[in-house]
Write a structure and sequence with these properties.
Order of helices and strands: HEEHEEEEHHHHHHHHH
Strand content: 5-15%
Oligomer: single chain
Length: 296
């Protein structure tokens, strides 16, 4: 999924899924998280990089189909830093990951897969020192206190669903700085409650709310499509048979979010990005929210 939103300009020129497809896939992701939670398992590392789009009928592909759709494998030599001979167990080469952006849309299944349970844990026995989630998707209590739970899963799910719709992260730090992420939270969500202040002090973090830099959740949603670098096409669209995955899955430039969707999505984010973990919407209520089922 991260291939569909990674772009050098981030907000300016970001790629993003077409709105109905983004909501459809976000609903599937929420269902996957609900399934894990119903088993007593927290995922622990919900980010766009762990959400994959499936390829349809790939088991039926011939070797020629694979090469035609994904290109020839690009191999890189493996060598040791010291220059010594590779050990017997070392691979002779590595293969660069394939990009599916040039794949025909006929081969793309509109289904997501939530992968990588390396940080997963039993809800009844959370890890004492938190999990290794990228800081942009970490909840405040996970950053400040190392407290991982189903509620930190809900926070990460909400951030991921926002990025699936927008093409850019809700909270972002170019240096992967916890301080910068917390500052972004304050600018968008407001000052943390007093219950979090001791944790901020223990981490030598002073968060200063600057009214000049405040931007609400609804403003973040309205940014979607506002700064696209090229205008939408008018009458010269590529026929579906000639489109690549990036043509058919990606929203045309300049398409903005309707006010109805802004209001619906804002409501969901407000209920899932609460500073107080237990006040966040659980997964079984997220899957029933208006934004995921809406036709805007």
């Amino acid at each position: 999924m991260s291939q569909l939103s990674d772009s050098p300009g981030q907000i300016a020129g970001s790629r993003r899924l077409r709105a109905p497809l983004a909501r459809k896939l976000a609903a599937q992701l929420a269902e996957a998280v609900l399934f894990l939670h119903s088993l007593g398992i927290a995922h622990g590392d919900i980010t766009p990089r762990n959400v994959l789009l499936g390829l349809a009928n790939i088991d039926e592909w011939s070797a020629d189909d694979v090469t035609h759709q994904l290109g020839n494998p690009v191999k890189d030599e493996v060598f040791t830093f010291s220059g010594e001979k590779l050990g017997i167990s070392a691979p002779k080469y590595l293969v660069e990951p394939a990009s599916f952006l040039s794949v025909s849309p006929n081969y793309i299944a509109e289904e997501v897969l939530l992968i990588d349970l390396g940080e997963a844990f039993w809800i009844s026995s959370p890890p004492p020192k938190g999990v290794g989630t990228l800081v942009s998707y970490c909840s405040p209590e996970l950053i400040l206190e190392g407290r991982a739970s189903i509620w930190s899963d809900v926070w990460a799910l909400s951030c991921t669903m926002f990025q699936m719709r927008s093409g850019f992260p809700l909270f972002e730090s170019f240096s992967n700085s916890s301080y910068q992420i917390l500052q972004e939270m304050v600018e968008i969500l407001g000052t943390p409650p007093k219950a979090l202040w001791p944790s901020l002090e223990r981490n030598d973090i002073q968060i200063v709310e600057n009214e000049m830099s405040r931007r609400s959740l609804s403003e973040q949603i309205r940014i979607i499509g506002k700064y696209d670098e090229t205008p939408p096409m008018h009458g010269n669209e590529i026929p579906l048979s000639e489109q690549s995955a990036s043509d058919s899955l990606i929203e045309p430039s300049g398409v903005k979010v309707s006010e109805d969707e802004v209001n619906s999505m804002t409501c969901l984010l407000q209920w899932t990005l609460d500073y107080e973990p237990e006040r966040r919407l659980p997964a079984d209520m997220i899957v029933r929210c208006e934004w995921l089922a809406g036709d805007f």
